[in-house]
Amino acid sequence: MSTGVAIVGVAESDLGVTGRSILGLQTQAVTRALADAGLRLRDVDGLATTGISRFSATQLAEYLGVEPRWTDSTYAGGSAYEMMVARAVQAINAGQADTVVVSFASNQRSARSRSLAGVVESHTPEAQFETPYDPLYPLSYYAMAAQKYLHRFGATREQLAEVAVAAREWALLNPAAFRYGAGPITADDVLNSTMVSSPLTVGDCCLVTDGGGAVVLTSLERAADLARKPVEVLGYGERTTNTSMTAVDDLTVTGAVGSGADALGRAGLTPADIDVVEVYDSFTITVALTIEALGFCGAGEALDWIQGGRIRPGGDFPLNTSGGGLSYCHPGQYGILLLVEAVRQLRGEAGARQVPGARTALAHGTGGILSTHATVVLGVDR
Predict the structure, then answer these.
(1) 3-state SS, residue 195
(2) What is the pLDDT of residue 54?
(3) Is 265 a domain residue?
(4) Going by DSSP bridges, is the β-strand pair 211-219/372-379 parallel, antiparallel, or unpaired?
(5) Domain hosting residue 322, numbered range
(6) How far apart are CA 261 and CA 14, in angstroms?
(7) Which residues form the Thiolase C-terminal domain (predicted)?
(8) Residues in Cβ contact with 106 at an 8 Å cutoff, skipping those fewer than 6 apart
(9) What pLDDT score does 122 carry?
(10) What is the mean pLDDT of residues 138-144?
(11) Which of 215, 221, 243, 253 has most Cβ atoms within 10 angstroms of its Cβ?
(12) For residue 63, what is the DSSP state?
């Protein structure tokens, strides 16, 4: 199955410690992605972005000098960009836009800030029942999910550390990765790094970097005349589950169950049909919860299932092949870069980390404190 829409251009901005403004990084990502597609700014009539202000798409459109017919500034954290792909597909099919750019960038490392969140309003559940305990946002919330998961399923921190170890091995194959050249790590390295919020150490946590990316979408008909092999959007799905943790019945079950089922169902595929998987790895536990929810393994099985090199380079389940948020780049909202890597893998452009023969990919974004979930299924030559 196909939506009739394809991603035709992708790019990153500068990554790491850039010293650039957010709009400067956004401009890099957008213009590089358009160049990748063989298009120009004047071709853009749809724009989706967030993270600049409450008027993100308006502000970026003005900065770029474009007047889009369609915009989207959905703020849903790290899943927003997978959601925006779905909105872009719908807009193109409805005739609201012909060429849509989805983008994000942040300069949080240069700005010496990890926070992208606003002040919690005093009337919200989290302000009343959670903030008084001074949790680290979002780390302590993911730590609670990890603690519950390890306890319920009898898993170990050593098993959880495999997520970070595998991510580093992929990053060592990616010259753009923040940890490229830093050398491999072991489970002991993860466990013995500074404890931040039990059971998660520094080694279980994503990077803090500048950076961003962009993807360009248009109809399959138009894509046939452009510079790159089109990567079809085959399916998409999303769920929004909670703002606070007090609203969550089970910390080991996430909304990815529904978003993944919808995306795969629209694509007419099953988890076994997916060649490359890119999931949000804000923390090691995020990966375990997500691959279970998406149906790649059963509940409570993930940490056993990923052992033995399965998710490392050369394993039979290529996961987070760029090095992920744990070792490649994490500019605060990582979802856009999941899409960039998935497209590069399907176009056969990933260099030393290329998954041979990859024809299908799944990108899954997670936002907030396991709050929002969005899945996109992509394919080529089908």
Answers:
(1) strand
(2) 78
(3) yes
(4) unpaired
(5) 5-112+207-379
(6) 34
(7) 237-379
(8) 22, 25, 51, 116, 210, 211, 212, 331, 332, 333
(9) 58
(10) 96
(11) 215
(12) H
Does 281 map to a domain?
yes
Closest alpha carbon to 70 in 25, 102, 39, 40: 102
Give CA–CA dist 46/141, Å, rounded.
Answer: 35
Hey, which bits of the chain come out as E strands?
5-12, 46-49, 70-72, 99-106, 195-197, 200-201, 211-219, 231-240, 276-279, 360-367, 372-379
Return d(Cα 20, Cα 14) in angstroms, integer.
Answer: 9
* Residue 304 CB coordination number (10 Å): 14
Any bridge partners for residue 102, and if so which? 48, 215
Residue 55 has pLDDT above 90, yes or no: no
- In Å, what is the CA distance from 242 to each residue of 142, 146, 245, 367? 13, 17, 7, 10
Q: Which residues contact 134 (CB under 8 A, 6 or more apart)?
A: none
Which residues are known catalytic residues?
280, 328
Nearest to 320 by CA among 199, 169, 197: 169
Q: Which two tokens stand for residue 174?
A: 């990616």
Rounded mean pLDDT of 148-166?
Answer: 98
Cα 91 from Cα 217, distance rounded (Å): 11
Mean pLDDT of 332-345: 97
**CATH number of the domain residue 249 falls in:** 3.40.47.10
Structure tokens at 183: 């050398």
In this prediction, residue 126 carries a pLDDT of 77
Task: Give the pLDDT confidence of 183-214 residue by residue, as tens digits.
Answer: 999 999 999 999 999 999 999 999 999 999 99
Give the phi and the psi of residue 209 in degrees, each rounded to 5. Answer: -135, 165
Token pair belonging to 335: 């979802």
The strand order across the sheet containing 231-240 reads 70-72, 46-49, 99-106, 211-219, 5-12, 231-240, 372-379, 360-367, 276-279
326 found inside a domain: yes
pLDDT reported for residue 113: 61
Q: What is the pLDDT of residues 290-338, one digit of tens each?
A: 999 999 999 999 999 999 999 999 999 999 999 999 999 999 999 999 9
Q: Based on the structure, what is the number of domains in the chain?
A: 1
Q: CA–CA separation, 112 vs 271, rounded Å?
A: 39
How would residue 2 be classed by pLDDT, with cut points 50, 70 and 90?
A: confident
Across the range 26-31, mean pLDDT stands at: 97
pLDDT at 121: 55
